[in-house]
Amino acid sequence: MGFNDGPRQGGYRDNFDRKPVEKHKAICSECKKECEVPFKPTPGKPVFCQECFAKQPKKPRRY
């Protein structure tokens, strides 16, 4: 049985399986520029543009 024989298993996923992500307009909480995010913003929660999000300190994962 070869590498590509049979059903796929695990977390492998082909790029062509993905659907286009719906973008939503928002205002960055940090720099106040208009940006688009891949989720619907929740009122009262901060939203960051891509540049400001990258500057945020990393939080430890909860398991």
Describe this structure in words.
The protein contains one helix and two strands; from the N terminus they run ββα. With 63 residues, the protein is mostly beta strands. The radius of gyration is 18 Å and the shape is globular.
Going by helix content, strand content and strand pairing, the class is mainly beta
Strand arrangement within the widest β-sheet reads: 1-2
SSE ordering:
EEH
Termini Cα gap: 36 Å
Low-confidence stretches: none
Measured by DSSP, the beta-strand proportion falls in: 5-15%
Kindly provide the radius of gyration, computed on alpha-carbon positions and rounded to a whole number of angstroms: 18 Å
> Helical percent range?
under 10%
Q: Which whole number gives the mean pLDDT?
A: 83
What is the helix tally?
Answer: 1
> Mind describing the biggest β-sheet?
2 strands, antiparallel
Query: Any idea what the shape is?
Result: globular
Number of β-strand runs? 2
